[in-house]
Amino acid sequence: MPPLLAGREEEKERILLQVMSVLDGDHSARDTFLVGPRGTGKTTLLNWLGQHVEKGRKSGAIASLARIGKPVSEIDSLEKISELFLRKSLFLGLSSVDVRAKIMGGSFEFKDDRYIGSIERIYRQTKRSPLVVLVDEAHEIEADKLNRLFHITQDARNCGSPVMVVMAGTPQLRDKLESAQASFVERGVEVEVGPIERESSREAIELPLKDFGNIRIENGALDKVLDEAQCYPYFVQLWGQALWQQAQKEEKHELQMADVERCKHVIEGEKAQLYQRRFQRWDALELGALTEVARRLIGGSKLGRHGIVKVCEMALESSGQDAAGAMDVYKKLVNEGVIWKKTGEENYGPGIRSFLNHVVEQEVSRQRQDREFDGGKTR
Ligand SMILES: Nc1ncnc2c1ncn2[C@@H]1O[C@H](COP(=O)(O)OP(=O)(O)OP(=O)(O)O)[C@@H](O)[C@H]1O
Ligand SMILES: [Mg+2]
Hints:
- The structure is a single chain.
- Helices cover 59% and strands 9% of the residues.
- It has helices at 9-23, 42-61, 79-90, 108-111, 113-126, 143-158, 172-180, 198-213, 219-229, 233-250, 257-279, 284-298, 305-318, 326-335, 353-378, and strands at residues 32-35, 64-68, 131-135, 163-169, 189-192, 216-217, 254-255, 339-340, 349-350.
- Magnesium ion (MG) binds at residues 42-43, 136.
């Protein structure tokens, strides 16, 4: 958990509205889906919810919590480690229930039907006591397994059990839910987890420094940090950590612009790695469309879904490809969090603005190298 979970009051309230009704024994609560790009704080919100429910359990609200962790992709050699790790964290708070789920290594959870079977067993055993199932990285679950999970959850409800599922995943989860074709998915509540407000980023940086270390940061320097963090929770956290370490290293209680510059140097390295990883997820045929969308959004173009698809079509055509691929590129832009908008908003903005700059810079550098290469050939 970050030292301060900033700017998520509305999201917390919406999640709790459903969870509280389960805890009150209501068996018509709605499953809840936390959807947002990478690094925006979905896992953090699940952790917060886990702690919240756990507190309620201790105080006698007899809620149980089944927690399904991240699918682990490494299989054989890590099997034992993940088994140990997961056994501890999986069914947190289910001590009163006899859970004998066999936990497999690897992407164990939903590959193995027995796992869903164990959730079914938990539902049966919890009977009328409330149960909240938390599922992280849910976009990785295959559609048929999701479908099954919703069915057994619904069956449990029909039998009068107050149960619900809270899932977190990247925007790809929306497609997965759609292809799961479970009609009660439509009844679910979607909570969007996007960038936080600038004022919330300010709090997330300023308050922990002050409260835990009596460290202050000069106003201009803080503004610079906020510009750099771009309201992206993962960057906000990197900055908070770097500033804290800088203050400890220099034994200071007052941070200035020079300190921010030093931290920036460290953070740039981490950002570059992140951008490189994300950039590598795009293959050569998609790069033209990615770059064109990036260029337009940086330039302030107002583009909704239709506009983005159009730009992709044009870019694909200009590189001699079939424009019909534009919809797939658009979906990838959304799923990868390159572009982001709240439901109801008309136009997309950048997921992380500086990633878009990185994309454009890569293209400029590629063109420069092409020119050099061509120049060499003609000489
Ligand atoms: N509201 C917030 N205020 C401050 N820091 C936050 C907030 N939300 C998340 N963070 C921090 O941002 C980072 C990313 O959060 P988290 O891992 O929860 O994101 P995620 O959406 O689950 O990402 P992924 O999709 O990659 O799993 C963490 O370091 C977390 O502590
Ligand atoms: Mg996560």
